[in-house]
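Summary for the lay section of the report: proteins are chains of building blocks that fold into shapes. Here we show the chain for Integral membrane protein and then a coded description of the shape we predicted for it.
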Amino acid sequence: MTTAPSTRPHSGALALWPLVAAICLLAALVWTGSLPDVAPVLDVIASAAGEPNFYGSTLAGLGLLAGGLLAHRLQACGRRWQGFAQACGSGLWVPMLASALLGVAISNLMWGWTMSDGAWQPLFAPFVSVSPTVVLMFGPDMKTVLTGGVLGGVVTPPLSVLGADVICPWLGVPPVVGVTGGMAMGAVIAFAVCRHLPWLPALPHLRREPEPQPPVIAETHGPAWLLRRGLADFSEAQFFGSEWASIGLIAGVVVAYLLDPALPAYGSGLLPQILAAQALAAVVAVLLWRRQWSRRPFYPTFVPVVSVAPACVLAYGGTPASIFAGAALGAALGPPLAAAISSRLPADFHPFIGNVAAMALATAVIVPALQPLPGF
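The coded shape description reads as follows.
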């Protein structure tokens, strides 16, 4: 993965001001009555952090952010139990998060009208695509945080909405195909634009190798590491990739389910089946591709956790066959496809593009192909 200059956790205090500005702007629009449907907008912003996992829950998003903050503090203090480094090991978790949340705020301010009939729309898309990756590629400067937030909020949502609402029904594939495909296309456009923005720093100066981390030889590739890595993959789509963030995410959505089983997972009532499929996909993917983890600093084993596995559960009603097939096939196909696409991208395009492209392709191939089989 491409990282920023240092792996030391960045304070990023100044990077939070664009987020504060976005919140003030939203509050002003609410105060003046420019946003008549305030509740759906605020709910999407609050739950955006958990949307990539198919949870659609405010508590899940808040849990992820709380766990991510804990992991950031543990990493900043050099604690033994800090877990996997967040923000691709760059130390830029705070400015990355500021840009991601700014992108979501802009997304809702610009494209919230698409929810006028109460329909769900993937306005969370900037949170896990262009906005954070611009910061990860070009650093934590104020202009970079703003650039990521604006590009993510303006470019990505309409493409994901078009994919989910128009293209996917026409093709007969799950909406996640359109959402992630829109993210990939939006990122290609955004990073092409970044080439011509004079205020962004020159990329070669930012493509340094991360500082070496203290080795953990005893459990590097043993059972404990496998379980930790599988757990961390639950929050990798948000560029957290931390066990603590994942624990907060899962705990939040479980609490939401216990309070009202009809709320999480878009009212499907299939949260237990989704969690089962995701856990199985995470463990199988890490187990299958453990050698790749030993050879590389990162391998996209998280891809089926937020695409094929939950999409298969929703498509086929959470049957046992849909849980096992979605997890196993997604774990087998998704990570190597993502790695292959990412390795062929231009140097100034963040490799996450390969990950979301693989999510779209793998889901479009696997989920419809299962329909004629028994148990689906």
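Put simply, here is one thing we learned. The chain has 14 helices and no strands.
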